[in-house]
Structures are given as C-alpha cells and as structure tokens.
Amino acid sequence: METNLADLPVRIFHVLSRELGRDNLWVKIVDFDQDPIFSMKQLEIDNFLKRDNCCDQVLRRWGNRGQTVGDLLRRLQLLSRTYENEFDSIQLQLRRKFKILRWVPDSEEQVTMAVDEETIKLECKAQGFPCPTIKWYTNDSKEPVHTGRSYTVLRCKCSTEHQYKCVATNEIPEGFSFSEHYKRPGKLWNSVLESDFVDITSLVRDDELCESCKNFEMGRLSQILADDEKVENKTIPVPSNLDSTLRAADKVALIMSNCSYVHLPELMTPHCDAQTLADALQKMNYKTVTLADLTLDEMRYFIREYKKLIGDGVYAVFYFVGHGFEVNGQCYLLGVDAPADAHQPQHSLSMDWLLSIFRDKQPALNLFLLDVCRKFIPYDAIGAFVEYSEQFKKFHRAHRNMVYGYSTSGGVGAYEVKGEINGVFMKYLKNHVSMEISVMSMLHGVLKDIENDPKQIH
C-alpha cells in the first residue's frame, strides 16, 4: 500500500497503465481543484493525450509527486460513489480487499425514495467491493424488472400496484490475473444482500401517465365490447342481426382528458377531473373507460369504438376535458398533438363529426360534457370551418335524448384555479352528478354554482 506508483513491478505497472488507458479512464481521476497530487490543468491533460503510452507518463508524474498505491486506491474508492464499477478492475489489480455487501448507513435504510411530480426514484443502499450488481423485482415477478442502483417508476396505476425490492450481489470475476489471489481457500469472494419490499401505493396519482395505463384502458374497452354483460339479472335484448361483439351495456361512459400538449400550454387538472367523474359514474354502475393524453387520431378511433356500445335503452356519457375552441356555435376539441396554430379543421375534432358518428343511435340518454374553452377564433380563420361544416348538414336532426353540458358560455374560456385539484366545472359537477335529479337540473345547478364561484378570474 505504501509502494510509490513509479516503483511498481514492471508487470503490474504496465497492467495498471493499460487499465487507466481504457477509454482514457485516467482523466476521470484528475482533480482540477482540491487534491494537489491528482491535480492537472486542462492544457496538461491535452498534452498527455497527444503522447504515445501517455498513461506510463501519467503514472510516473503521480509517482514523482509522492503518490502511493494506497493514495490511488483511496481516490478510486471515492470516485466509485459516482462511477460505480468503472474503477473496479484497477482496484482488483492493486489487490484491494474484498468487502461483503452491507447497508449504508445502516439496515434501517435499505431503499430510499425520491418523489417528484411524476416519478418515484428508488435507490438501493447496498455497498461493498467490488461494486454490486443490483436487480429490482416486484412482488409478483420472478425475473428482474430493472438492473441498476436506482430504478425510476412513474406515479401511475400500473407502477403503484406493485411492491419493489432490490437484490445486490458482488463477486470476484473468473479468468483474470487477480482471480486466483482472491479465491484462495478460506477467503470470501462473493456476497448477496436482499432488501425488504417497499410499498409505494400511497404515492399513486390519479393521472394516467404511461402507455401501459393507456393500453390497459384500451383493453377494458375491448372487453366491454366483447362481454355478454347482464344487468340486474336481466340480459339486454340484442336484435338477431346484430353481432354479439357489438352488444351495448346499459350504462357506459367514455372519458378523455388531455393535459400534456406538445405545442400548446400544458394543463393542470384534466386528469384529476377525469378520474373524479369516472369514480362518480362507477358508483352508479357505469362501465367507464378513461383515456389520457390522446392524439387527434386516437380520439377519433376510440369514439368510433365507443359508438359500438350505444344501443336502444342505453345511458351514455361522453366527457372531454382539454384544449378547445368554438366556431359558429360549434365546439372543436384538440388532441395533444395539435399544432400551436390549431385553428384549422384538420387539426381538431368537431362536434359535428362526433354527432355524425352517432346519427343512427337511439340511446335513452346521450350526454356530452365538454370541459373546454369556447373562445372564438380569429375572424380570418372562420371561412375554412364554415366550408368544413357543410358536409355535416345532411346529418343534422334533433334527438330528444341528447343533452349538451358546457363548462362555460360561448366566447368564454374555461378555468383552472391554482392550488385546487379540479377545474372549476368539475369542482361543482362532482357535487351534483350523483343527485337523484334530472340531467337538466343537474347542469343548471352546476352552472349556477360556477356563476357564484369567488375564485373565477378572467
């Protein structure tokens, strides 16, 4: 340990030089500020890199400064906190002592959690030498779900249904010049450490943030389409000419919430609004499908699929919360991929289009709840929308069981209030939706509450 680096035996000197030269690893050892033994200026580093066998000269430079094997090992041990196992091979060549795995600082803190708005970062606190290989498992997985000291999961339903643990292992590898030294009889050369399970259920958010969650809801929609559901022990009659996979349930709801717009301002509350309504409808035995952050094409696709659930006698609810606007009394809804200048028909989903999709349906209730801005677009953009809407006039006809509910009046924006879980519309809708009153009375009550809301700021 006290041997000067310049005085190492020739074989060890050249092995160490080769290891330091691998991807210029020696540059990471340099300290620009604090340690005088390892300090170098950038110009010196650049000059060394231009030379043949530069690592031989770097070792001699460090040796001439009085650096010993012990000094280098202590430096590498410190750097391992940042670079993990990058310096293990060098330390093994210098015969650093094998250290079994242990929890640092103590066994009470095996896994730490760092939580932000969207993710949970789990970090395994196992330490030893060589640096451990760390694998993460869920409570129902036999194979690891991730390898690495830290594991970041989304705060969404698919992640928080699990508990997590880490399993750390370290051992001396086979087939190296140092292997025999460490594996002599009676010497310990491997260890394993396994943490307790960590439960992150309490950190779940109501948002759906990942593709896995979205795919799960897609699967639920497909299942509803395929299932032969019974309500109150009575099978819903199906005409003989209707395919059984298109059978409608008695109460269905399609809920769409768009927050994370690519080119438009991000919204705060839509996902929470969607989950609030879904929870309320599920308590009333609605079969709900909640989808988040959909593109325009995805919105159109799921509306077409949702149409298959709507038949005679069905109570159907469609709710959309996100960006939108109004043209000539018609609402237009925007997917998360809408461009910054979305005031063109091809970039939006019109309610004319949606009604044309449902034109041949006769549900007992067809409720559309639109939680969007209804601000008017610039005058010079109106012409394209007028021309676009002409194609739908032939489908226009009154449906006595169709009801619209808007979050705001025409020409006015919908609002979120900082610090509140729900937008203004859902803040009051959730108080009325479960009441045993007519739909029209419910909507009138909500709008009256909104008018009296003291926090609405225009």
Automatic annotation (TrEMBL):
Pfam families, sorted: Ig_3 (PF13927), Peptidase_C14 (PF00656)
Gene Ontology biological process terms in this record: proteolysis
Caspase family p20 domain location: 249-374
InterPro entries listed in its UniProt record: Caspase-like_dom_sf, Caspase-related_regulators, DEATH-like_dom_sf, Ig-like_dom, Ig-like_dom_sf, Ig-like_fold, Pept_C14_caspase, Pept_C14_p20
SUPFAM superfamilies per the UniProt record, alphabetical: Caspase-like, DEATH domain, Immunoglobulin
PROSITE patterns in the record: CASPASE_P20, IG_LIKE
Annotated GO MF terms: cysteine-type endopeptidase activity
Positions of the Ig-like domain: 105-177
PANTHER family in UniProt: MUCOSA ASSOCIATED LYMPHOID TISSUE LYMPHOMA TRANSLOCATION PROTEIN 1/PARACASPASE, MUCOSA-ASSOCIATED LYMPHOID TISSUE LYMPHOMA TRANSLOCATION PROTEIN 1
Protein name: Uncharacterized protein
Species in which this protein is naturally found: Caenorhabditis brenneri (Nematode worm)
